[in-house]
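Researcher: Sequence recovery benchmark, item below. Answer with residues only.
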């Protein structure tokens, strides 16, 4: 580690590099540790998360960018507009390792740009660039336009979609086109700063500690991963989608806003169906021999011109499948693609829509505008996704998060823990 902190002030247009003190390095090490330390140290109490006073921190772990296996995830931190508290989201892929390859262990973004901008980082060349032409673009288009403008097809990019621009509090950031740091509304904080994206390309090879010991550890971990794969490890064979059957068998699969833990159509949205119907491409994170991440051949989907799109993870199959009473695998793939493009967290979005559906089902929300919002109704799901991303009608309420929505609707069915949407491990109460 070189202990370099890159600080970018969008208000002043100033870029500086600082050294992280050794005492901080040894105590907090990187990743979530750095997020905790610097957010606590630098943010004043009670600031508005969507004001220029908030900061965004991009923090790779201490071994990212090295040859050590299973080290591809990085952290994104800020004060959450959803909870008003510290949020540490994380994502896989290659963006975190590229931060270290560019020579940095931490990036802090502060202030607010007067106009839409993106940050370009090529080793020690750091620029704040105009993003007027990118504002309003979806995530994949943003990725393509920046790479073309920078003439760097291998640049790693973290970006927001229209939902983040509209400061939707369940919006996410997306790197490498489909790697989402989903929770807490980080996309909204990017949008509040008029920051569309951060694009980075490094040319260095990070080194850590004792190279011989690291190589020894690398070989051991790779061998253990190979043994697991040779033994038919399900995560390698099918990704996280294989958890659908397990969760449903254990009555833990989210169904119709967690009213049940068993979904009668779960067999229609399992790994078996995905593997049978679609050609898959393995897309592992940086230095990950498990390689659970996959994409799908999109050439036969009538609703997109993309050649390759993300395969839904278990969380999306749960929250956009069983939790919405939806047993149509292609529709879930389409929903996942749409949320990725708009920059919406699928867990939070699926939870929000499910809660409205239960409220309508139980007669807590009445009227013509709600009548079609029923479990399993594809059109209603797509309609609400667009309305949330664009802050239209009911979507504007849901875009504020579950606590706000519960105060303006049906608090007895809004399920959350400390203002963050409930996760996918259901606990049903006995009546």
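Model:
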């Amino acid at each position: 580690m070189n202990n370099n902190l890159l600080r970018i002030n969008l208000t002043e247009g100033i870029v500086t590099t600082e050294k992280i003190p050794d005492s901080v390095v040894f105590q907090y090490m990187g990743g979530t540790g750095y997020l905790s330390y610097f957010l606590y140290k630098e943010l004043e109490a009670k600031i508005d998360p969507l004001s220029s006073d908030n900061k965004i921190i991009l923090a790779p772990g201490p071994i990212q960018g090295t040859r050590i296996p299973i080290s591809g995830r990085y952290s994104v931190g800020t004060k959450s507009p959803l909870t008003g508290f510290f949020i540490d989201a994380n994502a896989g892929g290659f963006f975190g390792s590229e931060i270290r390859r560019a020579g940095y262990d931490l990036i802090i973004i502060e202030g607010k740009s007067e106009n839409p901008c993106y940050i370009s980082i090529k080793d020690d060349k750091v620029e704040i660039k105009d993003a007027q032409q990118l504002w309003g673009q979806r995530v994949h288009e943003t990725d393509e336009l920046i790479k073309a403008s920078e003439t760097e097809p291998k640049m790693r990019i973290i970006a927001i979609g229209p939902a983040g621009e509209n400061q939707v509090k369940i919006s996410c950031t997306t790197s490498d086109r489909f790697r989402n740091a989903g929770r807490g509304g980080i996309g909204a904080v990017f949008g509040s700063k008029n920051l569309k994206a951060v694009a980075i390309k490094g040319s260095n090879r990070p080194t850590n500690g004792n190279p011989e010991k690291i190589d020894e550890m690398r070989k051991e971990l790779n061998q253990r991963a190979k043994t697991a794969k040779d033994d038919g490890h399900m995560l390698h064979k099918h990704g996280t989608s294989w958890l659908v059957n397990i969760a449903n068998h254990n009555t833990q699969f989210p169904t119709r806003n967690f009213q049940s833990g068993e979904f009668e159509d779960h067999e229609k949205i399992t790994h078996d169906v995905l593997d049978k119907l679609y050609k898959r491409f393995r897309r592992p994170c940086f230095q990950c021999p498990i390689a659970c991440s996959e994409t799908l051949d999109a050439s036969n989907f009538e609703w997109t011109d993309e050649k390759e799109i993300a395969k839904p993870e278990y969380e999306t199959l749960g929250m956009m499948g069983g939790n919405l009473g939806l047993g149509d695998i292609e529709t879930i793939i389409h929903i996942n693609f749409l949320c990725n493009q708009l920059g919406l967290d699928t867990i939070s979005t699926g939870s929000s829509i499910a809660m409205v559906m239960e409220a309508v089902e139980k007669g807590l929300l009445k009227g013509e505008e709600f009548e079609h919002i029923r479990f399993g109704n594809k059109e209603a799901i797509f309609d609400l996704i667009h309305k949330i991303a664009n802050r239209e009608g009911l979507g504007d309420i849901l875009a504020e998060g579950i606590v706000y929505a519960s105060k303006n609707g049906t608090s007895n069915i809004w399920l959350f823990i400390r203002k963050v949407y409930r996760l996918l491990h259901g606990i049903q109460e006995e009546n």
